[in-house]
């Protein structure tokens, strides 16, 4: 990814705004900072198969696409539980 300075120069945003945005991306696991090397976008995670009894909790909103095609979005901190068939 571009440096904070490059993002500032390109978008004209305050450095603090850029730092906060990068902190959010880092907290959500979308980027990683490698000291002395830069900031990198993290590869998309593989599909995770859940089994009965598993739970999912996220620090970001969770979107669930049901087998029927219905899409539901749950707020940050929601715990999803997989129940047996």
Helix content: 10-25%
- How many structural units, i.e. domains? 2
Low-confidence stretches: none
What class do helices, strands and sheet pairing give?
alpha+beta
Whole-angstrom Rg: 17 Å
Helix count? Answer: 2
Distance between the terminal alpha carbons, to the nearest Å? Answer: 44 Å
Instruction: Assign an overall shape.
Output: elongated
- Provide the residue-averaged pLDDT: 86
Number of strands: 6
The portion of residues forming beta strands comes to 25-35%
Largest sheet geometry: 2 strands, antiparallel
Order of helices and strands: HHEEEEEE
Strand order of the largest sheet: 1-2
Protein name: HTH gntR-type domain-containing protein
Keywords: DNA-binding, Transcription, Transcription regulation
Domain HTH gntR-type: 1-44
GO biological process, one term: negative regulation of DNA-templated transcription
Describe the protein.
Helix content is 25%, strand content 26%. It is α+β, with helices and mostly antiparallel strands and 85 residues long. The protein folds into two domains: 4-41, no CATH class; 46-85, no CATH class. It has a two-stranded antiparallel ribbon with strand order 1-2. A two-stranded antiparallel ribbon has the order 3-6. The protein has a two-stranded antiparallel sheet with strand order 4-5. A hairpin with a 5-residue loop joins strand 4 (62-65) and strand 5 (71-74). The longest helix has 13 residues, at 15-27. GO terms for molecular function: DNA binding; DNA-binding transcription factor activity. Pfam families: GntR. This is HTH gntR-type domain-containing protein. InterPro entries: Bact_HTH_transcr_reg, Tscrpt_reg_HTH_GntR, WH-like_DNA-bd_sf, WH_DNA-bd_sf. Residues 1-44 form the HTH gntR-type domain.
